[in-house]
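Example record used in the benchmark description.
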Amino acid sequence: MLRLTEDDVFLGPSMVFTNVMNPRSAVNRKDQYAETIVEKGATIGANSTIVCGHRIGMFAFIGAGAVVTRDVKPYALVVGNPARQTGWMSEYGHKLQFDAGGHATMAAASIPLHVFSFVRDKEELLDLVIDPILQNFSRLVGLLEDESDEV
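Model output (structure tokens):
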């Protein structure tokens, strides 16, 4: 059983969801259908296979042809057979890089150009646009402590 929990999920051409773990044509296993959850903004590439019973996290990115056999974390980039995490993705579909301190960075190309129309200087860009996006991403994947723990 598939359940898309939120909007903006991309399902590439010829990708498939399985519905039981060990199918046999002569054995009726309709009572064993496993739920697969795909969260908001996830991308599932062409020809990928999602084995049933797993959760695909928010804005996760599954590369073309990947075979997903376990849960995928929010914002994770997974590829291969079986799918393995190779990085992190932004909400705009760009691979994130990390500095020496472990903080996420991303290229300006990750943000739509209309976002820059109201920005007057580089500091304002960082304060209004990039920092909030990176902080939100970092919280979701557990890279920063909860704000309530800050002094």
